[in-house]
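Appendix B, Record 12. Input sequence as logged:
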Amino acid sequence: MKILVTGGTGHVGSQVVKELQKRKANIRLLVRKEDTPIPAGVEKAVGDLLDPVSVQKAMEGVDKLYLLNAVLPDELTQGLIAYGLAKRLKLSHVVYHSVFRADYFMDVPHFASKVGIESALRAFDVPFTILRPNYFFQNDAMLKDPLTMAGIYPMPLGDVGVSAVDVRDIAEATAIVLSSSGHEGKTYNLNGPEIVSGPKAASIWSKLLGKEIRYTGHNMEAFEEQMRKRAPSWSAFDLRMMFEGYLERGFVAEDGDLKTLTKLLGHAPRRYEDFAKETFLQWQEMSKVA
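Logged structural output:
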């Protein structure tokens, strides 16, 4: 049983590869450049999701596809090319990395793209599983300077908050779905065990850092302006619309989500506070080395 993994060098995909390796899976990794380093024991296929010829070649001899494509303006096209080829080659299973409550956020470009790909999966007869994760804990690992230097928690998670989830739990759930049976036709919401609001996150980091961390609130104009300094304008707008959606419509787990994920994993999902402690210790170790 050979699995083609797309997006396998990113934050989530690399963890999925690790989890699949633990399960002795036969993995082929699609990468864009020949010199991209990949884990030992993993087969490399060079291609681009916008190049159907290279993707078809990468799929030859493959049984399953893990489809994780980047948030880009052409995300929908990339996803539909990959799925169309999986359908043509009659793969036995496609596992698609979507996003929680995607269909409630059709004004968010990358959510709408994922809804389009989900719809294609449901329209045809290739066995599929859809994974819908919430906001990643690990997004906050990039907040060292705002937290430690400026004393602010800048992510606009709102006062109600989101059921944030650890990337490691997403990866483990993905590997389980890819390496075991009984998941075809199912959609799994991947949500953490607690609701993380902006004020709650600020409080957790305040205790860890030993100083007051302020939650900077819901100034979305300022948020988008800051994002434009680090990302293309279209991406800053996309992220702004996502967080505004969190504030307006919520991103809290649905009834039964935690029970379902716990059963799938065989253990309780990780807690945000534990992730924050681990991250804080890593920052301390990095400071010692520097």
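The longest strand covers residues 26-31.
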